[in-house]
Amino acid sequence: MSNAFVRTSKSAPAQMRYLVKQLKGTKAVAQTLRISQRTVERYVKNQIKTPRPDLAARLEREVKTRWQPQIRAKARQKAATTDGIVIDTRARLGYTAPIGSTDQDRIRHLTVALPPQYADRLFTAQEEGASDRQLQEIAAEALREVYFQDSGRRAGSLEEVRFTDIEHLEFQL
Fold it and tell me: What's the order of all strands across the beta sheet hosting 85-96?
């Protein structure tokens, strides 16, 4: 995931207030940042606005370590319930279908928006420690339904999608 998830406030007082909220008190923030509790209180009240470079770096690092997981969790929740997820892959794709159809495997580059239920299945499987192979099977099933069968509008007799020789496979929220 890229830096798109890091959108913290730039002002030191705002970052300090965020940490106080996260760590539930000025004392814990002071210990974490190795500064006095009174200094933390001054930042919170906007009495100090510009930290020394070494403190600024520590402050930024502490805020990012707490901020990023929250933002990712919210983005995943939104993808799993309303927005879905985009899969971008270049791989050998083929399928099992009745005799007379063109089921020849071939390299394809696909960028497909998957519905929320597949985002939810992928995130759940990943959290439960699924292997890459299991995640690829879920992705293949999603591609079968959304790309090949067009959500039930065509290729209804398609039985299985083969997803092999993966050059790249990326998921985007």
Answer: 106-114, 85-96, 160-172
